[in-house]
C-alpha cells in the first residue's frame, strides 16, 4: 500500500484547504489597492466586491480591446504554466474549487468526456462562416442579447466539434474583444455572474434598474453550469475555461511532471476514479486536461505515479 | 520549389506529409527528457524576461486601473 503519512501525501490531502486559502486570498478586500495589479492564478471575477486580484481573462480581454500586447500578463500566466503546467487549476482556482464542492452533492452522476477535436480545416471553415455571422450582426447593429445568443449557440457548435475551449479563448476572449471592443467572455462568464453580477445587483439599487435580457441570459448560463457541475466533474474546466486552454499545452514541458511506472501499474483505474477531471493518467502522464491535483499520486494502491521535476536526474 | 508543389493535389499531399512528419518529431520530443528540460529552461527565461519587460513598461498599472474601474 502507498505510504499515507509522509510530507507529500499529507500535502496532497490538504488541497481543499489550499484552494480555500486562495479563494480567501484572491477576495481579501482590504488588500485590493495594491494586489489588484496581480493576475489571480485561477478564474476569479474582479467585479466581485471583495476581489483583491485581477481576473487574468478579464485583463486579457481588456488588452485585446485596447489593442495592446499583454506582455506582463503573458509573462505571469506563462511562468505559472512553465513551472507547474495546469497546477493552478487544481490548487488555486476558486471556480475549480467551487465545482469540486458542488460535485459532492448526492445526485446521480453523469460521466461524459469532451469529443475528439475535428480536423483543422473543418474548424477553419466553420470559424470563417461563424465569424462572418458575427460580423454581419455587428454591422447590422442588432441588440446585444441577439449576438450573445448567437455566441452561446456557437459555443454548442464548438462543443460538438471538440474545440469549445479554443472557441472560448481565441473567439470570445481575444478576437471578439479585439474587433468589437467588448469583453465577450466576461459578458457570458458564469463565474462573473456568481461573484460579480449577482452581488453587485444586490448591493447597488441603481444597477437593479439596469437589469436587461443579457443579465437573465447570464443567470441562465450560471444555472446551467451549476446543474452540470453537480452531475459531471469540473465541466467548466473541461469544456469552457480559456485559462485552462492557455495552461494545457504546458503540461508536456513544465518543470513539474508526473511519471507513471508502466511496469508497476496494475490497471485498477483508481487514478481515474479519484481524478477531478476524469482522466486516466496512467495512459498519458502529460494529458492536457490534467490539473496536477496529485489525487492520483496519493491514492494509487501501488504508488506507481510519482511527482517528478524536469530538472531532476 | 520542391517537385511535390507543382500541382494542387501534390501540394495537398506535401502539406499532409510535412505535418505528419512534424507531428512525429513533436512526439519524439515529448519522450526526450533532455530536450524537454532545455525547452522548459528556455521558456522560463523568455517568460521571466517578458514579465520584467511588462513591469518596466508599467503594464501592471493598466491591469490595476482596469480592475479598479470595475
Describe this structure in words.
By secondary structure, chain A is mainly alpha-helical. Chain A has 18 helices and two strands. Chain A starts with 6 loop residues before the first helix and ends with a strand. In chain B, 83% of the residues lie in helices and 0% in strands. Chain B is an all-alpha fold. The mean pLDDT of chain B is 81. Chain B is elongated. Chains A and B meet through helix 4 and helix 5 of A and helix 2 and helix 3 of B.
Distinctive features:
heterodimer, A: 313 residues, mainly alpha, 2 strands, B: 70 residues, elongated
How do you describe this structure in short?
The complex is a heterodimer of chains A (313) and B (70). Chain A has 313 residues and is mainly alpha-helical. In chain A, 57% of the residues lie in helices and 3% in strands.
Envelope shape of chain A: globular
- Which regions of chain A contain 5 or more consecutive residues with pLDDT less than 50? none
Approximate shape of chain B: elongated
Helix content of chain A: 55-70%
Sheet of most strands of chain A: 2 strands, antiparallel
Overall structural class of chain A, as computed from helix and strand content, comes to: mainly alpha
Low-confidence residue ranges of chain B: none
Number of beta strands of chain B = 0
Strand order of the biggest β-sheet of chain A = 1-2
Summarize the biggest pleated sheet of chain B: none
The largest interface is: A-B, 35 and 30 residues
Which percent band covers the strand fraction of chain B?
Answer: under 5%
Q: How large, in whole angstroms, is the Cα Rg of chain B?
A: 21 Å
Please report the number of helical segments of chain B: 3
Mean pLDDT metric of chain B? 81
Helix/strand order of chain B: HHH
Radius of gyration based on Cα positions of chain A:
20 Å
Q: Report mean pLDDT of chain A, rounded to a whole number.
A: 92
The helix/strand class of chain B is mainly alpha
Amino acid at each position: 500500500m502507498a505510504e499515507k503519512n509522509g510530507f507529500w501525501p499529507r500535502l496532497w490531502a490538504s488541497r481543499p484547504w489550499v484552494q480555500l486559502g486562495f479563494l480567501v486570498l484572491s477576495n481579501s478586500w482590504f488588500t485590493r489597492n495594491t494586489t489588484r495589479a496581480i493576475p489571480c492564478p485561477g478564474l476569479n471575477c474582479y467585479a466581485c466586491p471583495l476581489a483583491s486580484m485581477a481576473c487574468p481573462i478579464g485583463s486579457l480581454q481588456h488588452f485585446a480591446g485596447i489593442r495592446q500586447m499583454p506582455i506582463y500578463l503573458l509573462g505571469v500566466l506563462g511562468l505559472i504554466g512553465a513551472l507547474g503546467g495546469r497546477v493552478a487549476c487544481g490548487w488555486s482556482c476558486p471556480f475549480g474549487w467551487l465545482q469540486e464542492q458542488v460535485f459532492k452533492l448526492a445526485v446521480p452522476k453523469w460521466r461524459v468526456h469532451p469529443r475528439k477535436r475535428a480536423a483543422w480545416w473543418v474548424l477553419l471553415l466553420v470559424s470563417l462562416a461563424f465569424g462572418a455571422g458575427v460580423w454581419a450582426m455587428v454591422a447590422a447593429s442588432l441588440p446585444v442579447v441577439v449576438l450573445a445568443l448567437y455566441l452561446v449557440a456557437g459555443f454548442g457548435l464548438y462543443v460538438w466539434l471538440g474545440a469549445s475551449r479554443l472557441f472560448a479563448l481565441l473567439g470570445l476572449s481575444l478576437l471578439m474583444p479585439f474587433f468589437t471592443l467588448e469583453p465577450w467572455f466576461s459578458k457570458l462568464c458564469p463565474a462573473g455572474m456568481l461573484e460579480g453580477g449577482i452581488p453587485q445587483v444586490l448591493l447597488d439599487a441603481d444597477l437593479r434598474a439596469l437589469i436587461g435580457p443579457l443579465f437573465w441570459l447570464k443567470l441562465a448560463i450560471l444555472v446551467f453550469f451549476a446543474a452540470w457541475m453537480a452531475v459531471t466533474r469540473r465541466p467548466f474546466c473541461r469544456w469552457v475555461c480559456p485559462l485552462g486552454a492557455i495552461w494545457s499545452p504546458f503540461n508536456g514541458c513544465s518543470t513539474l511532471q508526473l511519471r507513471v511506472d508502466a511496469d508497476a501499474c496494475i490497471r485498477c483505474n483508481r487514478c481515474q476514479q479519484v481524478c477531478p477531471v476524469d482522466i486516466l493518467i496512467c495512459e498519458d502522464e502529460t494529458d492536457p486536461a490534467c490539473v496536477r491535483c496529485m489525487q492520483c499520486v496519493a491514492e494509487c494502491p501501488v504508488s506507481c505515479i510519482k511527482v517528478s521535476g524536469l530538472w531532476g536526474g | 520549389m520542391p517537385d511535390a508543389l507543382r500541382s494542387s493535389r501534390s501540394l495537398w499531399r506535401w502539406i499532409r506529409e510535412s505535418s505528419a512528419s512534424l507531428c512525429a518529431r513533436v512526439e519524439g520530443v515529448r519522450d526526450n527528457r533532455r530536450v524537454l528540460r532545455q525547452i522548459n529552461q528556455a521558456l522560463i527565461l523568455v517568460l521571466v524576461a517578458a514579465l520584467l519587460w511588462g513591469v518596466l513598461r508599467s503594464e501592471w498599472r493598466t491591469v490595476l486601473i482596469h480592475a479598479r474601474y470595475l
